[in-house]
Amino acid sequence: MKKVDGNDYKEAVIKTMWNVTAKQLQELYFNKFGIKFDPFVDLEFKGSRNARDAKRRNLQIQPEKRKTSSSILTLEEYNKILKIYNEDTPDGLQKMFFYVAGLELAWRGCEGVNVTIKHFKEESDNCGLPTGRIEYNCIFSKTAQGGSHKLTDSKWLATNTTDPRICPVRLYKKMLSKRGKHITTDRLFLTPNPAWREPSSVGWFKNSPVGRNEMGKWTRTAAEEIGIDIKKKKISNHSLRSTAVSQLAKAGVGEEQLIKITGHANTFSIKPYLQLDGDHHYQMIDKLRANSTAMEESNNKSTNCAPSALVQMSKNIVTTSPSTQTPVNYYNCTIINYNS
Predict the structure, then answer these.
(1) pLDDT in tens, 107-164
(2) Residue 4 φ/ψ, nearest 5 degrees
(3) Which has the closest alpha carbon to 120: 97, 139, 104?
(4) Which residue numbers delimit the Tyr recombinase domain (predicted)?
């Protein structure tokens, strides 16, 4: 895939073009022939995926072609953003849930725009009682096509007992309770009603979803409000996804587990998200030093124990040796040198 003038596209463009084409094929075969297949994992497309990945690796070597990932937020910055908003207002409630769910579900930058209430399902136990968890499954997403048939792993929102203020389950239920009877769209994030405080108001929200461009500015605007220099640091809604992956990796979660959360088909795709911050680097160095110290102590212990162990062996074992063997004593222990 090249431009008309023969130059290469940027690495991110190659990825997008392949994914969009694959998605269109997926939808075409399902809608026209009723055939379900997933080009992101099916063996028939393995050669095509390998060619795409090889091209992307070559382009990543070139700085002008390399994708610039959204910067991660430190946990301090993330918590500052959460403190900006008041959940007792339409705008504040939606944004608080967006930032909590966006991090815990590792949403893509534009995923929140397309989220509907049908993507969430409250879990119940065998007795029909709620478990406190909400299942999230983006049924018809970039990586999962096929009508109502689930082809992607579910993710879960769990009750936060440590800090109920940012509990995603509680915030989600509160959002549903504020949807008036006039709401007919199933989109989750709605346009706030400016007159929501008025007694004659129809409710907190209008019967229209938040626009893509409007929601796309949420995290960037919040970051600027807490003092982050957005000219030096690339902040977007996708930063929540990058933050989730980096923080989980920092906590020791392996790449195979990470792709279950992000929905990627292979570990290669999450490499751009793994951004090393100062704290993470210090933790890695501390582990390296700890391992080095433990190994040195173990070697010293083995060296200190060796003489006594060998002495005991020399006392208990009688060996008939050829006449050509010459005994040599170290640490009062008899060691045989074989002279051929």
Answers:
(1) 988 899 999 999 999 999 899 898 999 999 876 444 444 444 444 678 999 999 999 9
(2) -60, -35
(3) 139
(4) 68-295
**Cβ contacts of residue 184 below 8 Å, gap of 6+?**
207
Amino acid, single-letter form, for residue 62: Q
Residue 115 region, left (φ>0) first, then alpha (ψ -120 to 50), else beta?
A: beta
The secondary structure element, H or E, covering residue 326 is strand 325-330
Nearest CA among 86, 90, 89, 105 for reference residue 208: 90
pLDDT digit string, tens, across residues 157-199? 999 999 999 999 999 999 999 999 999 999 999 999 999 999 8
How, if at all, do strands 130-136 and 155-158 pair?
antiparallel
C-alpha torsion sign, points 37, 38, 43, 48: positive
Phi, psi (rounded to 5 degrees) for 175: -60, -45
